[in-house]
Amino acid sequence: xxxxxxENSYDIVIVGAGMVGATVACGLADSGLKIxxxxxxxxxxxxxxxxxxxxVSALNLASEQILRNLGVWQFLEAMRLCPYRRLAVxxxxxxxxxxxxxxxxxxxARTEFNSASVGRSHLGHIVENDLVQHAFYERIAQHDALExxxxxxxxxxxxxELGYQLVLDSGKTLNTKLVVxxxxxxxxxxxxSDIGQYQEQYEQHAYVMMVSYDGDQQDITxxxxxxxxxxxxxxxxxSGDVSYASLVWYDSVERIKNLKSLDNNDLLDEVKRCxxxxxxxxxxxxxxxxxxxxxxxxxxxxxERVVLVGDAAxxxxxxxxxxxxxxxMDAAVLVDVVGRALLNGxxxxxxxxxxxxxxxxxxxxxxxxxxxxxxxxxxxxxxxxLYVARNVGLGLAQSAGFAKxxxxxxxxxxxxxxxxxxxxx
Length: 425
Ligand SMILES: Cc1cc2nc3c(=O)[nH]c(=O)nc-3n(C[C@H](O)[C@H](O)[C@H](O)COP(=O)(O)OP(=O)(O)OC[C@H]3O[C@@H](n4cnc5c(N)ncnc54)[C@H](O)[C@@H]3O)c2cc1C
Known about the structure:
Elements: E1 9-15, H1 19-27, E2 35-38, E3 56-60, H2 61-69, H3 73-77, E4 82-84, E5 86-91, H4 97-101, E6 110-114, E7 124-128, H5 129-140, E8 146-149, E9 154-160, E10 163-168, E11 173-181, H6 188-192, E12 197-213, E13 220-225, E14 231-235, E15 243-251, H7 253-261, H8 264-274, E16 282-298, E17 302-303, E18 306-308, E19 314-315, H9 323-343, H10 351-380, H11 384-399, H12 401-412
Parallel strand pairs: 1-2, 1-11, 2-8, 5-13, 11-18
Antiparallel strand pairs: 3-7, 4-7, 5-6, 9-10, 10-11, 12-15, 12-16, 13-14, 14-15, 16-19, 17-18
Helix pairs in contact: 1-5, 1-9, 9-10
The protein binds flavin-adenine dinucleotide.
């Protein structure tokens, strides 16, 4: 089939208007390209004073800057978000076996990273994924070059000589020179393009719980490591004069199954029993959801007129909250690469052009996956010398000012050479 430059033709079709796909669209909105976004699920609407939505993310400063530069942040700020100024990591005391005979060194096995120590007002924000998506949709509506088709499902993909034809379930046909697969971990685009992936499931699952707590909105997010898996606390914006937090309990499949079987009151009691003392006084358990954990990496990000971004290209263990931050950075680099090709009069959709995107992102994404594995396997281990080494390491990290500031800077994402969208302008 030939490429048909009719009204159903788009320079780029982005499949999946989640946080990452919407970033690519808004980043290219003024490039002169005609872009369609296909999304199969409408995000839950924003309602003031409601209980926050269950899916949340910790966005670092680099991601915030991308959203600011795209004119999306102001819409998000008008809904709900919670800045965090401090980030803490500690290891919960082990009382069993030989470990129980050791002096309790877990008291000082705590490291706290503070935005003030690196001259910043905050380290990041905890946001609700649906609200980020909403903020993007408000911005997309302001751009004439962007067309959001939602809800819509793809019925079929056909390869054209220089692009693709996508047929939607409504019967609408879209021809395009480039398909961006931003359709998440189960990416249909990746599967249709026969791009394989490396995948490994972790033994732990994550149980995410929305709770309300007594007192003011907290400015600290923390993780307490145990051999069974970490226990995390992520504060959220107050809603209807109530403070909320997202708790993430990582544990074995059996343990999560057991937690799921408890009613809200019993689960709340179990959380109070097992979480460290740093947990504020909980008032109620609201919603909850479990997630299997796996890492995956597409064998290539670029294949003839198809490019993958975000979770469609890679998924990472969420224990350090990096997934969508990596995805935003993918999107920002892709926008740079396409923009540069347009300026130079080159084919923005060719594999040669897009190879520059993969070159910049694959290595870094792999590095982050490896780092999460080091955390995951390092802290899951019950081995005695490792326990002592970890605690000593955390204790030293707490007192090592320079190194700690380096880690704090790293957590903001504002390090290395940043794509244009992540820079201050
Ligand atoms: C428990 C948990 C906690 C996490 N916490 C954090 C955190 O704190 N910080 C962080 O950075 N990351 C976190 N992540 C990871 C983060 O949620 C993902 O990396 C992020 O959602 C990926 O964004 P995305 O836009 O690439 O994909 P998605 O969010 O999956 O969006 C894909 C979009 O495509 C749509 N779609 C899918 N298939 C189709 C189709 N065939 N046609 C049309 N549309 C389609 C979907 O409806 C969706 O809107 C966490 C993940 C988990 C599981």
